[in-house]
């Protein structure tokens, strides 16, 4: 296995772009988060809030109708588009051009959602982050991978990675297979875990922030929103993945002395994004 590049604060400061004082919401990027299904609207609610809190100017979600009031109430700053279907997504449609799209949190695996995802990937040209059930659906339909834009960011946890690349017998083989998958498809892979690695072809980055407090429901959905936000703010895909993973882990390191491991929840990641950014300016 090639030696990994450690992602610490000096590496982050090479990539981080502070906000320009003359900016406005129209040039801070408009992100679209697509996901949610009955019982899993929370995933998209968390993801879209994290997206806004990571600095994106505008955030829209595309969700099934059952999530309309939930997201509008939980996150009034987020705009909401709905599918015709009540419980899950059946046809993805929107009438604006986002700078980045995050797809998958809470989206479920209904067969009609498979069809909607197929139609979407066949026509989409917007920079993309793919997570959760959208990854699982893709794993079952690998012929769709060729439709995805160059440097699409995939954010699998261990099980989702296994569904994509198959089983491995050793850590070395896991990396070999993931590097080969990334090279073959020209994807950026965020290999989530403790620690998280970012794989861009032959280049492997190892994150240095984060702790076991992150082992709680929804923290991956939050990470998808954060990376999509950075992508919409014109970061290169690999830099969006690296900075997103670093800031996400940093929130848990900052919060840990106050919450301890057990009481930390995904909303605490979102609450501490501001402090994580501020620590970069010190
Ligand atoms: N509030 C909401 O709305 C929430 C909604 N959510 C949404 O739910 C949907 C399903 O997502 P999901 O990840 O729970 O299900 P799935 O892909 O079947 O994986 C589960 C299997 O994988 C394994 N496994 C998991 N993590 C692992 C790890 N780190 N390392 C290793 N293994 C790991 C685990 O295996 P086990 O260890 O139990 O054997 C288990 O069998 C998705 O759309 C998501 O966005 C959630 O985010 C929660 C909050
Ligand atoms: N023990 C741990 N140490 C560090 N990070 C962790 C640990 N457990 C989980 N995480 C992080 O938490 C996130 C969990 O993502 P995921 O499994 O997709 O959760 P969910 O689908 O519930 O949102 C990932 O970013 C992962 O790296
Ligand atoms: Mg997840």
Automatic annotation (TrEMBL):
<comment type="subunit">
    <text>Homotetramer.</text>
</comment>
<keyword id="KW-0456">Lyase</keyword>
<feature type="domain" description="YjeF C-terminal">
    <location>
        <begin position="8"/>
        <end position="280"/>
    </location>
</feature>
<dbReference type="InterPro" id="IPR017953">
    <property type="entry name" value="Carbohydrate_kinase_pred_CS"/>
</dbReference>
<protein>
    <recommendedName>
        <fullName>ADP-dependent (S)-NAD(P)H-hydrate dehydratase</fullName>
        <ecNumber>4.2.1.136</ecNumber>
    </recommendedName>
</protein>
<feature type="binding site">
    <location>
        <begin position="192"/>
        <end position="196"/>
    </location>
    <ligand>
        <name>AMP</name>
    </ligand>
</feature>
<dbReference type="Pfam" id="PF01256">
    <property type="entry name" value="Carb_kinase"/>
</dbReference>
<dbReference type="GO" id="GO:0005524">
    <property type="term" value="F:ATP binding"/>
</dbReference>
<keyword id="KW-0521">NADP</keyword>
<dbReference type="GO" id="GO:0052856">
    <property type="term" value="F:NAD(P)HX epimerase activity"/>
</dbReference>
<dbReference type="GO" id="GO:0110051">
    <property type="term" value="P:metabolite repair"/>
</dbReference>
<feature type="binding site">
    <location>
        <position position="106"/>
    </location>
    <ligand>
        <name>(6S)-NADPHX</name>
    </ligand>
</feature>
<feature type="binding site">
    <location>
        <position position="221"/>
    </location>
    <ligand>
        <name>(6S)-NADPHX</name>
    </ligand>
</feature>
<keyword id="KW-0520">NAD</keyword>
<feature type="binding site">
    <location>
        <position position="220"/>
    </location>
    <ligand>
        <name>AMP</name>
    </ligand>
</feature>
<feature type="binding site">
    <location>
        <position position="43"/>
    </location>
    <ligand>
        <name>(6S)-NADPHX</name>
    </ligand>
</feature>
<dbReference type="InterPro" id="IPR029056">
    <property type="entry name" value="Ribokinase-like"/>
</dbReference>
<keyword id="KW-0067">ATP-binding</keyword>
<dbReference type="InterPro" id="IPR000631">
    <property type="entry name" value="CARKD"/>
</dbReference>
<feature type="binding site">
    <location>
        <position position="157"/>
    </location>
    <ligand>
        <name>(6S)-NADPHX</name>
    </ligand>
</feature>
<dbReference type="GO" id="GO:0052855">
    <property type="term" value="F:ADP-dependent NAD(P)H-hydrate dehydratase activity"/>
</dbReference>
<keyword id="KW-0547">Nucleotide-binding</keyword>
<comment type="similarity">
    <text>Belongs to the NnrD/CARKD family.</text>
</comment>
<dbReference type="GO" id="GO:0046496">
    <property type="term" value="P:nicotinamide nucleotide metabolic process"/>
</dbReference>
<comment type="function">
    <text>Catalyzes the dehydration of the S-form of NAD(P)HX at the expense of ADP, which is converted to AMP. Together with NAD(P)HX epimerase, which catalyzes the epimerization of the S- and R-forms, the enzyme allows the repair of both epimers of NAD(P)HX, a damaged form of NAD(P)H that is a result of enzymatic or heat-dependent hydration.</text>
</comment>
